[in-house]
Structure to design on (257 residues):
C-alpha cells in the first residue's frame, strides 16, 4: 500500500451468494465488529437484486455497495441486462468488470471489457477492471505480455482525467477460489507491471494515483503480507468476504496506520 498517493480499497465480491435476508444478517454482524476504518475504503459487491437490500443494511456505515457486472450497452433490447445508468441511479459507485468468471462463462473478452469500462466511466461509475493469467500462461512465461494487452485494451479510450475513477484488480486465474495464493512478491511484481503500463499510457502522475488491487484467495491469514507490498493497494476478495469475521480481519489488516 502507498497511501501517500492512492486510496486503499478492501472490496468483497459476493458472486452469486446470499439472499436479501442473508445480506442483512451479514451486515448486522459485520457492523458490530467494524473498526473505525480511517485508512481504507470498504466495499461489498453484491448481485444486482440485492443492491437495494445491501444499501439499506449498510446505511450510515462506511461500507459502500458495488455491482458485479454491467452491460456494455447504453439501453434497449437487451433482455436481462443492467445498464450503467441504472446502477448509477441506484447510488452504486463501483462495478466489477471482466471478472475471470465473466470472461470464462459469458465470454467477456478484452474488447467487451473495454466497452463495459467505457460505459461505466461515461455513466460516472468507478470500474474495477479485473485482469489475470491462467496457470498455463504463467508457466509459458507470457504473464507480462498478457497483462499488458489486457490492461491496454481495457483502458482504450478512457481519458486521463477519468483514470482517478478507475481501479485495476490483478486476479491470477489459478488463485481464484482455489486456496492457492500468489506469493506477495509474485502479486506485487504483476501489480508493478500494471502500473508501468498505466505510466506509459498516461504518465507518472496518473500511474501513481491508480489503486491496483490483488485478488485470489486473499484471506485473514495472508492479507497483511500481501498488503504490505508497495504496489498492492487493497484486495478483491471472494470467499473470505462472505464471512464477517474473515472480512473484518482483512479490513483490519488494511486499516493499519
Ligand atoms: C474473486 O472472486 O474475485 C476472488 C478473488 O475469489 P477468492 O477470494 O475466493 O479467490
Amino acid at each position: 500500500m502507498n497511501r501517500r498517493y492512492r486510496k486503499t480499497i478492501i472490496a468483497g465480491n459476493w458472486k452469486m451468494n446470499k439472499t436479501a435476508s442473508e445480506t442483512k444478517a451479514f451486515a448486522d454482524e459485520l457492523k458490530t465488529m467494524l473498526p473505525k476504518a480511517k485508512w481504507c475504503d470498504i466495499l461489498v459487491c453484491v448481485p444486482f437484486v440485492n443492491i437495494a437490500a445491501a444499501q439499506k443494511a449498510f446505511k450510515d456505515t462506511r461500507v459502500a455497495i458495488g455491482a458485479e457486472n454491467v452491460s456494455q450497452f447504453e439501453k434497449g433490447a437487451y433482455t436481462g441486462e443492467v445498464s450503467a445508468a441504472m446502477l448509477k441511479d441506484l447510488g452504486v459507485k463501483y462495478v466489477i468488470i471482466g471478472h475471470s468468471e465473466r470472461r470464462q462463462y459469458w465470454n467477456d473478452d478484452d474488447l467487451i471489457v473495454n466497452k463495459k469500462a467505457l460505459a461505466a466511466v461515461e455513466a460516472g461509475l468507478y470500474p474495477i477492471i479485473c485482469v489475470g493469467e491462467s496457470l498455463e500462461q504463467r508457466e509459458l512465461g507470457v504473464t507480462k505480455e498478457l497483462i499488458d494487452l489486457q490492461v491496454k485494451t481495457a483502458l482504450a479510450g478512457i481519458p486521463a482525467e477519468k483514470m482517478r475513477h478507475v481501479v485495476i484488480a490483478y486476479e491470477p486465474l489459478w488463485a481464484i477460489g482455489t486456496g492457492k495464493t500468489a506469493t506477495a512478491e509474485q502479486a506485487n511484481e504483476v501489480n508493478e507491471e500494471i502500473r508501468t503500463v498505466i505510466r506509459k499510457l498516461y504518465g507518472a502522475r496518473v500511474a501513481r494515483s491508480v489503486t491496483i488491487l490483488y485478488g485470489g484467495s486473499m484471506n485473514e491469514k495472508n492479507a497483511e503480507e500481501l498488503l504490505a507490498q508497495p504496489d498492492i493497494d487493497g484486495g478483491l476478495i471472494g470467499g473470505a468476504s462472505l464471512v464477517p469475521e474473515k472480512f473484518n480481519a482483512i479490513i483490519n489488516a488494511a486499516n493499519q496506520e
In short: The longest helix spans residues 184-202.
